Amino acid sequence: MNKGISDVEDFPAKKIRTWRIVLVSVAVVLAVSLAVYALYPHLLGKINSSESQSGSKPASVIDSKSEQKTEQEPARVMASAEYPSSSDPSEVRLDGYDAYMSDVMRVVFSDARDENCVFSPLSLYLALSMAAEITDGNSLQQILSVLHQPDLDSLRSFSGSLWRSCLQEGTDEKLMLGNSLWMNSDWECDQTLMETLTGYYFASAFSGDPTSEEYNQMFREWIRTQTDGLIENPDICLDPDMVLGLYSTVNYAAKWTNPFAMDAVPGCIFHAPSGDISCAFLNLERATLQEFCGDHFSCVEKALNGNGSVRFILPEKGVTPQELLQDEELLLFLSTDSEGWGRAETHDNSKMMMPQIDFSTHQDLKGILDTLGVKDVFRSSDADFGKISGESQGLEISSVEQDNRVIMDAEGVKAVSITSVQIAIGRSEEPEPDWEFILDRPFLFEIVSESGVPLFVGIVNVPWTIW
């Protein structure tokens, strides 16, 4: 049976309807895709939130310690320091820093032995600046007094300017600073304080169990990175009893503007306190050198490419370096721009010789700071660490130490430093006895039976020394 004309669909109309279906389908697919793309971050955030509640936390944010911790919380990077931009060194006034340095230098080298010694006043200054932020009351005032700053606002401003003025990084020259705080995850530290340390002092923050190998490995890696591996001790570790550790590093490198000859001169004599030592000397000939003179010293300042200089100071004969460091004129010279030193003379066709340097030192600075007037923070009964947390009563600074390494060769200089300040729970202090009985001279003894019968009587004139 033949269809009527109304039952026969026109071919162009059918083609148009097919294209409409295709276009609608494509539009639906695009709409669904856009919706998923827009909602994906929110969906991912819910996933991360549920993971955080189960103990897995993001590693790059300072998060609240009010969350429920897992039984064994892993070591975490809580905040990474963002380096500030450098500034013109001429913009920084160092009046307070000069006074601080003069005070510290007198004490640091006052009891130096006949050994090599090096100290970084900058590394200690930055570490003490962070320590000031976690103290209050008299403890704070003692630190501010040593740093020659009137209050915390002035300290923050000056530390930031000091930091910016020092920054230097190029092909051959470097001056990089690093601050960090290492928290015991069992302690609840004040959030505002952590943000202050990371914000004003460009400090990286870490949290973990100081007894765990994972946390200590992270700590050793931070030191290795900050010091280019020049201070690397596989046995170094965090204090197991610490509540908070503050660390400050200085990493310096530069090339001589006028380098020494590559071939050192062998068989030269160095007159050490313990006796003459034969060694190879670095040698520089036909040079123009400027001599800066004092009443008891002579100095040559050797320039480095785009990164400062080294002042080599020779005491007059009969004066030791330790004695010279108590000299007012030298302390003034150490904190004065050489261009402003009146007693200077230029020598053409000069020769300079010196032994190559490569040595490391370790210093305990608690006694030095105590001498300078920082006392309360080392005794839990007097220390005020109320800014750390509501549980900070009974805390004290258990150690302040500095490690340094200096290398000087024919090409240039490398020097690194790290200062550590460890805050821990103070040991309970035993009261002083009202009376003492000490058998430290010849004495008698008697052994008596339970019934009161004397059994032995003796005299002790010489103690037994084998234990």
General description of the model:
By secondary structure, the chain is of the alpha+beta class. The protein has 3 domains: 32 residues; 243 residues, Antithrombin, subunit I, domain 2 (Antithrombin, Chain I, domain 2), CATH 3.30.497; 91 residues, Alpha-1-antitrypsin, domain 1, CATH 2.30.39.10. Helices cover 30% and strands 30% of the residues. It has 10 helices and 15 strands. The strands form 3 sheets. Strands 1, 2, 3, 4, 5, 11, 12 and 13 form an 8-stranded mixed β-sheet that branches. Strands 6, 7, 8, 9 and 10 form a 5-stranded antiparallel β-sheet that branches. Strands 14-15 form a two-stranded antiparallel sheet. Strand 8 and strand 9 form a beta hairpin. Helix 2 packs across helix 10, helix 3 packs antiparallel against helix 4 and helix 3 runs antiparallel to helix 5. The longest helix has 43 residues.
